[in-house]
Write a structure and sequence with these properties.
Blueprint (H helix, E strand, L loop, with lengths): L3 E7 L3 E8 L2 E9 L2 H4 L9 H14 L7 E7 L10 E3 L2 H9 L8 H14 L2 E5 L27 H14 L9 E6 L3 E7 L2 E2 L21 H8 L6 H8 L4 H6 L4 H9 L3 H24 L6 E6 L5 H11 L5 E5 L3 H13 L6 E2 H5 L2
Parallel strand pairs: 1-4, 4-6, 5-12, 7-10, 10-11
Antiparallel strand pairs: 1-2, 2-3, 5-6, 7-8, 8-9
Helix pairs in contact: 2-4, 3-4, 9-10, 10-11
Bound molecules: adenosine-5'-diphosphate (ADP) and the ligand CCCC(=O)OP(=O)(O)O.
Adenosine-5'-diphosphate binds next to α9.
């Protein structure tokens, strides 16, 4: 009997995989990939067979038979700008995931692996609220240089899921509320949600606050000088910005728990950097409040960093004048993916077709 949903969430250093029965997570594994293993692959898309085999081996070890799966759902990637929702994985989508239409990201593999397993069983593969979700208002696309439009790349999956949860707690629908959601993970997205739509965001890889491993927005003149200094290749500079920036750049660790430990031991430099991260997050939240003309029903802090009472309190001190703050630490992307698939399987939501939504 086909009763399970397989959820696949590829990240930069791991592939999270889970089996759901309805909205119950009955088995999950976080398959870690060492830097050494991953260094064998030139591009992220080259990791396809390796990660797919790791998933299939795990399913086998756990005794799951693919013929019992109803659908496969993966985290979607850097596709063309698209509306939020649950999408059927189609051939055209696979092409865009393979080339990385808006760049390389581990999440590009989610839809590709999901479709290949689903095809072997004649069932559907889906992606839900990929990082390419684009609900920007036109005004948010203007950067200040015509050649460089601002882009919506965002932790849409967790932001939408957490927002739905908090709206429900307030007895409201998502389209009735204005939220500011700060997804505080290895990368940081701070987004204003106007009537549930992500109308702006910093772009976790290029702007906004610095994060545990990313530099955030930089003074552009100095960045251009650095790029032309001859000291770095394009790849090296990109790595410095995403992977070796933020806490890693200043403190040599991407682990906020380690930073808090150092602060508690009296490390004043660690304190300065950690406080600067909170300062930049709060400043971005203030900018989102301006986007929403001050009409903010709730500020939500989520992601792994929101487990830090110290970080939360530093942010809240600066933003509590705007609205109440709700803390939803961690993320439940696996459940969000399963629920997205279930909404279309149960007919509560219409499945979206990539080609129709992006006009190709
Ligand atoms: N209990 C905790 N207290 C403070 N920071 C934490 C805690 N748990 C996780 N973190 C921090 O959260 C960050 C990772 O967040 P996470 O949402 O797991 O990121 P990602 O999914 O992008 O890898 C790391 O800096 C980690 O140290
Ligand atoms: C660009 C937004 C998505 C993102 O940065 O995801 P990760 O933090 O999982 O890399």
């Amino acid at each position: 009997m086909r009763e399970y949903i397989l959820v696949i969430n590829p990240g930069s250093t791991s592939t999270k995989v889970a089996v759901f029965k309805g909205n119950e997570n009955i088995r999950q594994k976080n398959i870690s990939h060492s830097a050494e293993e991953l260094s064998k692959f030139e591009r992220i898309s080259d990791q396809y067979e390796y990660r797919k085999n790791a998933i299939l081996n795990w399913l086998k070890e756990e005794g799951f038979d693919l013929s019992n799966f109803l659908a496969i759902v993966g985290r979607g990637g850097l596709l063309r700008p698209m509306p939020s929702g649950t999408y059927l994985v189609t051939e055209k989508m696979i092409e865009d995931l393979k080339i990385g239409y808006q760049g390389e990201h581990a999440s590009n593999l989610g839809g590709i692996i999901a479709k290949s397993i689903a095809d072997s069983q004649g069932i559907n593969a889906y992606i839900v609220d990929p990082v390419a979700v684009d609900e920007f208002e036109d005004i948010a696309r203007i950067s200040g240089l015509p050649e460089i439009p601002r882009r919506s790349l965002v932790h849409a999956l967790n932001i939408k899921a957490v927002s739905r949860k908090i709206a429900k707690k307030m007895n409201k629908n998502l389209d009735e509320v204005n939220f500011i959601v700060a997804h505080l993970g290895g990368g940081i997205s701070v987004a204003p949600l106007k009537k549930g739509k992500i109308v702006d965001v910093n772009n976790a890889n290029e702007g906004g606050p610095f994060s545990p491993e990313r530099c955030g927005g930089l003074p552009v003149g100095d960045l251009v000088k650095m790029a032309f200094s001859g000291k770095y290749t394009y790849k090296e500079l990109k790595k410095k910005m995403v992977g070796q920036g933020g806490l890693v750049g200043y403190l040599g660790t991407n682990d906020a728990r380690e930073v808090v430990k150092r602060i508690n031991e009296g490390d004043q430099y660690a304190k300065l950097i950690f406080e600067a991260m909170a300062y930049q997050i709060a400043k971005e939240i203030g900018a989102c409040a301006a986007v929403l003309c001050g009409k903010v029903d709730k500020i939500i802090l989520t992601g792994g960093l929101a487990y830090s009472d110290l970080l939360n309190s530093l942010i809240i001190d600066r933003v509590k004048f705007i609205s109440d703050v709700e803390i939803v630490p961690g993320e439940d992307e696996m459940l969000a993916l399963a629920e997205g698939a279930l909404r279309v399987i149960n007919g509560e939501e219409k499945v979206k077709i990539y080609e129709e939504e992006v006009g190709i």
